[in-house]
From TrEMBL:
The lineage of its organism: Bacteria, Bacillati, Actinomycetota, Actinomycetes, Kitasatosporales. InterPro entries: Lon_proteolytic, Ribosomal_Su5_D2-typ_SF, Ribsml_uS5_D2-typ_fold_subgr. SUPFAM superfamilies: Ribosomal protein S5 domain 2-like. This is Lon proteolytic domain-containing protein. Gene3D superfamilies: 3.30.230.10. Keywords: Signal. GO terms for molecular function: ATP-dependent peptidase activity; serine-type endopeptidase activity. Residues 153-236 form the Lon proteolytic domain. It holds the Pfam family Lon_C. Residues 1-28 form the signal peptide. One of its GO terms (biological process) is proteolysis.
Amino acid sequence: MLSRLTRRQKAAGLAVPVAALLATAGFAPLPFSVAQPGMTADVLGENKGEQVITISGAPVRETGGQLRMTTIEATSPDTRVGLPDVIDSWFSTDRAVMPRDSVYPSGDSVTEIEQYNREQMEASQDEATRAALNYLDREDDGIQVTLELADVGGPSAGLLFSLGIVDKLNGDGSGGDLTGGRVVAGTGTIDEDGTVGPVGGVPLKTQAARRDGATVFLVPRDECSDARAELPEGLRLVPVTTLKGAVDALVALEQGTGEVPSC
């Protein structure tokens, strides 16, 4: 037999199931990762005792300033993330809750994910080298580039690798450094043709960059709004879509001529 319940009776009837659901969710693992600002590395220098960019077959410039690639540090693929972790991160400016599948490939083991990230990094390094040599019109000069960056996976350092190669081989084209002596940081994938792509986790990367002394941050243009959301004080955003655009912006910033794009 069906009966009509009053609003108060309905609310009372729902209270137990909702409470039970929340209690269960509090202990159940959720499909999220918790991320925070990660390490940064100057691609013009050394990381963990290894030169990041080594070039042979062409003269290499002495460079000034820094070009820092940025990372996020996320909970490992097999880490249990529960509702308390998610709620706590929502109220924190230096942590972010991200869908696990946006951080790690879905359905793979930890070993497979680590291998995938290594392969992504290696492919990114190859693309970055080709993009830089193509930009300089030196792809046929027999230049050999070796890139070493320990304990970092994925493709998001591509833009900074390319800029580091350009700076070491050509600087600003007039004898100066691309950095102008500054600490410049950034993120972005790169294709062989020099196209810069989005990466995710930008608000956390800007925090890592500022923490490590950067005053300029190169960001894929499509992620400007994300970068502005929690932009640290003292960090200037420079949006880019291509390697050429990034070089032009840095030269304009260094020489004080031309327009420097902004978000």
